[in-house]
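Problem: given the chain below (83 residues), write out its structure.
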Amino acid sequence: MGDRLFLLATVYRVAFGVVAVTSQRGSRPTARWDNAMLGGLIGLAISILGAVTTWNRGDEFGPHWYPVALAVLALPQSWARRH
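Solution.
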């Protein structure tokens, strides 16, 4: 898969991540925010684990910037869910 497809995957993952919690209805705003940040922390941990385990394992795991981007964007996209 080329860099363009990994970039596309990064963009749609962030978009889906932001939309996932903001579409919840009936929840208290603070509960939604807490859930979003907890999800972001879990995503951050899993992204770091994925980056560490696949770092120099070959081209089939994609470019190095992809897991780094997922880790870097995990908390900001969760914070964006609050608004």
